[in-house]
From TrEMBL:
It comes from Hibiscus trionum. This is RING-type E3 ubiquitin transferase. It is found in: Membrane. Its main location: membrane. It catalyses: S-ubiquitinyl-[E2 ubiquitin-conjugating enzyme]-L-cysteine + [acceptor protein]-L-lysine = [E2 ubiquitin-conjugating enzyme]-L-cysteine + N(6)-ubiquitinyl-[acceptor protein]-L-lysine.
Length: 174
């Protein structure tokens, strides 16, 4: 038999209270949600810190390497050493000595009367003084043949027998 209908006007009984098992499940779901939110917040707070701590050694190593590279002198000559190289003013008689070179191989500009020039002793190539000095500050070899440029007071016993090398051998000194 069906239960008797309840009237909406009258003193019906209140709905039955939820069971304790359903309360526990509801509280368990809320507790799980709170724990998940705390874990997510903790993750997003710790992630930047952990990535910073992991990347810090790489950044420091890169900075040290860059400082070390800039603090070491270049492989070229210093300005004091460049002053020891011979120099002269270009004249028409000089051009007769070096008929093969009518222009500087660095700047590709021709030699003019009265310009300061340098003639490299090992290979005999002729350059403008300013052009060659800016080259020799970076590299200590001839820009054309890569022969090692020696200063007057250096010991040449190592390469004396091989003062003119091929381009490949000269690249070893770069």
């Amino acid at each position: 038999m069906p239960p008797p209908p309840q009237s909406s006007t009258g003193g019906g009984s209140p709905p039955p209270p939820p069971s304790s098992k359903s309360k526990e499940m509801f509280l368990s779901l809320i507790l799980k949600a709170v724990i998940m939110m705390l874990l997510i917040c903790f993750f997003f707070l710790i992630l930047p810190l952990a990535s910073f701590l992991l990347l810090l050694p790489l950044v420091l190593r890169h900075r040290r390497h860059r400082q070390r590279r800039h603090s070491h002198p270049s492989s070229g000559f210093s300005t004091k050493q460049l002053k020891k190289l011979s120099q002269f003013r270009f004249s028409q008689e000089t051009e007769g000595d070096n008929s093969e070179s009518d222009s500087c191989a660095i700047c590709l500009d021709g030699f003019r009367q009265g310009q300061w020039c340098r003639n490299l002793v090992g290979c005999g190539h002729l350059f403008h003084r300013k052009c060659l000095d800016s080259w020799l500050i970076k590299v200590t070899s001839c820009p054309i043949c890569r022969t090692r440029v020696w200063l007057e007071n250096e010991d040449r016993c190592i390469l004396d027998s091989d003062s003119r090398r091929t381009d490949f051998q000269g690249l070893l000194y770069l």
